[in-house]
Design brief:
single chain, 340 residues, SH3 type barrels, Alpha-Beta Plaits, three-stranded antiparallel sheet, 9 helices, 8 strands
Length: 340
């Protein structure tokens, strides 16, 4: 066996060994740096990058091995094809790991902003399409294929597809508008004018997934969502006022009613999970009703769903306290006069 062939084989096997060592080192170091500086990379992204590094070292070793080997002239065209294939494989792997890393960074950014693990499928799809399209153009350029006619044909085909898929594209751009406007994002609790309400689970290229409180999933087309009147209970902040309507007898001491009610409300704010401890509750009398003087108690909850428990505990404790204080909560009374 010629020395050049032996050297090429040794270089190839050495590249496998070096690639394996670099894979282990890169995985361990990236995991350490990710944990120390909170870079936001998932274990899947770190593992993918270390695997791609291993592949790149092997590709480099194979390229050097072929370059150093004294291959007969009749096999030069095969060597040329192998080199092109190695370059294409490198471009494809680079596009794949780049899309993984960018999507991972996007997830980390949104999780840092929204404090919940988001699902933003539409951005993932756009990023992957753009990166793999760039990689495809580079591969065509590597194969010495003129990309100008391809781009022209792609533009004409894109126009035809756009006309045929108007509804799909409408949903796609509506989804982009929803995300770019930042009025709705995964993790928000929203209510539509149609009566649908729940947590935004995912915004895909075609529809938005909403999880209702009974744990049902509602799928709304993005174009319908963009044209709806929406209440976002997480904007401008998650905390919100909780209004409870109460009525007391006309014989009640209103000063005493106000004092007792606020005491109960403060107790609920401090002791019930979901209440805002530093909030000062208050009441406002507003109506002389048919059989009671009515007022509104203003409490505060940390999020929309917390208002249920806050209201529940407030009504229980207020009813008990009113009984202890002798404050009457009247109910409708009708007096019937019988003519002799």
């Amino acid at each position: 066996m010629p020395k050049t062939y032996l050297s090429s084989i040794l270089i190839f096997f050495a590249s496998i060994l070096i690639g394996f060592i670099i894979k282990l080192i890169s995985k361990n170091r990236l995991s350490y740096l990710n944990q120390k500086f909170n870079l936001g990379f998932s274990l899947n992204a770190i593992s993918s990058f270390s695997n791609v590094c291993f592949l790149w070292i092997i590709l480099l070793g194979l390229y050097i091995s072929i370059f150093l080997a004294e291959v007969p002239a009749k096999f030069h065209h095969i060597i040329h094809i192998i080199n092109k294939s190695l370059l294409i494989l490198f471009i494809f792997s680079l596009a794949w790991v780049s899309s993984k890393i960018i999507v991972n960074i996007l997830h980390f950014y949104f999780q840092k902003k929204t404090k919940v693990p988001p699902k933003i499928s539409i951005f993932e799809i756009i990023i992957k399409i753009v990166i793999f399209f760039i990689g495809f153009i580079l591969i065509l350029n590597t194969l010495n294929i003129n990309i100008t006619p391809f781009i022209t044909s792609l533009g004409i085909a894109g126009l035809a597809v756009g006309l045929a898929l108007q509804d799909t594209l409408s949903n796609f751009f509506a989804g982009l508008y929803i995300l770019i406007s930042k009025k709705i994002k995964p993790g928000d609790y929203i209510s539509l004018d149609s009566g649908i309400e729940g947590y935004v689970e995912d915004i895909t290229w075609r529809n938005t997934t909403i999880r209702q409180l009974p744990n049902n999933i509602v799928i709304v087309p993005n174009s319908k969502l963009a044209s709806s009147i929406i209440t976002n209970y997480y904007l401008p902040e998650k905390e919100l006022a909780v209004l409870v309507q109460v009525g007391v007898s006309y014989n009640s001491d209103l000063e005493k009613v106000e004092r007792v009610t606020i005491e109960v409300a403060k107790e609920v704010m401090k002791e019930v999970p979901g209440g805002v401890p530093n909030f000062e509750p208050f009441i406002r009398y507003h109506t002389f009703g048919d059989f009671s003087i009515n007022f509104t108690v203003i409490l505060r909850a940390q999020s929309y769903v917390d208002r249920y428990l806050v209201t529940h505990e407030f009504i229980k404790r207020l009813h008990k306290r009113y009984k202890e204080e002798g404050i009457e909560i009247p109910f409708p009374i009708r007096t019937v006069y019988l003519r002799q």
